[in-house]
C-alpha cells in the first residue's frame, strides 16, 4: 500500500444507519480502487477490548457501496453477500484503513474486494457481491 502521509482524505457523506459508525474519510487512488479511513473510538470495542467485527463489516459495506456509486451514480446497488476473514485484532488507538477494489461490474452483479489494515498489519480481508439495478427496485 502506498504511503498514507500524502493521502488527500475527504470526508464521506454518511446517511441512515451508516451515521452510527462515525466519520469515514476516502481517497480515490485510481479508477476502480479507493482508500477509506476510519478512526474508531472506545464505543467500537467488543468485550475483549478490540474493534468489534460488526464494525469492520459495516465499514466494508459502506466502502463497497461508495466505490460502486462512483462507477455510475444513476444505478442502484444492494449487497447480496459479503465474506470476511478476520486475520488480526485491531484497537482504537490506530486508524483502520480499507483498500477497496472493484473487481468487476456486470449488468446484474458487481464484485468488490476489500483489505483492512491497522498500522500496516492486515486485520481483515473481504469479498463482496452486489446486485446492480438500472433503477430503484420496487
From TrEMBL:
It comes from the Bacteria. Its EC number is 3.1.2.-. CDD domains: PaaI_thioesterase (cd03443). Residues 49-117 form the Thioesterase domain. Keywords: Hydrolase. One of its GO terms (molecular function) is thiolester hydrolase activity. Gene3D superfamilies: Hotdog Thioesterase (3.10.129.10). Coiled coil: none annotated. The keyword Heme does not apply. It is an enzyme of class 3 (hydrolase). Signal peptide: none annotated. InterPro entries: ACOT13 (IPR039298), HotDog_dom_sf (IPR029069), Thioestr_dom (IPR006683). Belongs to the thioesterase PaaI family. PANTHER family: ACYL-COENZYME A THIOESTERASE 13, THIOESTERASE SUPERFAMILY MEMBER-RELATED. This is PaaI family thioesterase.
